[in-house]
Amino acid sequence: MSSFINELERIIKVVSTLGSLPINIFHKIVFCSFAKAGLSLFNATDAQKAELESLIEAIPPVFRGLLKGELYLSALKFTRSINLLLWEAKKLIIPEEANIHFILDFLRKNVGKVGGVIVLDCASIPEMVTIAGKFAHTNRNVVIYSRIFANPIGVTRFLTEQLTHLGREPALKRYAQLLKEELEASFSIKKSLIDLVVHEHGVSVSDFLNSLNMQEIIEQINHFMKQSSILITSDHGYDLVANEHGLYITHGYKRKCPLNFSRIALFLVID
Fold first, then answer.
1. Dihedral sign for Cα atoms in the order 86, 146, 10, 134
2. Sequence spans of domains, the chain
3. What pTM value is reported for the model?
4. What are the pLDDT digits (tens) for 108-128?
């Protein structure tokens, strides 16, 4: 599992040099590097490739070389590693990373105490890299942990239904509160912005990118960063789907697709 973390850290280091860019452009560069990698590993049509290329053309020319070069190559290695990880996980009935007890034990032992917990519903790899890169640019200490939460069906209920076995309400805000208690944090927040955008604008990648207000997320994290360290995680990510209608974002997609990131939730600590 360390191989994909190494690639992710390399991507974060590279994008942190772009940290002074407006967040919408920054996020688009990150997203498009992963999307380009995903389409390279998928039997994409010329029309699907052209749709992504039109998004890339909207990025200032000076940054396109980095996107199509170093970032793309690292994203390609990362996506290959993730695809292999997901393939191996399918051989198991339930991988240990899908068990909330295993995750809580890992976090207690490896993260320890934090100041706060933020759970971003549907935050996927591009958003976590964007957040990490932005704060690394300001010389914050950024750590992405080698363990993930594996969500085999890529939907919230897989996680929240496990909470009932702990005597808790099956709601994502209760997961945030549980992490807060386990890590002795002073606060927890559940934010649904990304999930709402995915469901509202799920037919178009361009609509998704234009509608997602990453600035709001960054500002909220930055507000709490003034106080203490923050654990940022999710319940699942999202998938980039390519079909006869073009490219779109959803989660819990059951067929092969360029980016099957809804099965993965990262753990990121910033202090």
1. positive
2. 2-270
3. 0.95
4. 999 999 999 999 999 999 999
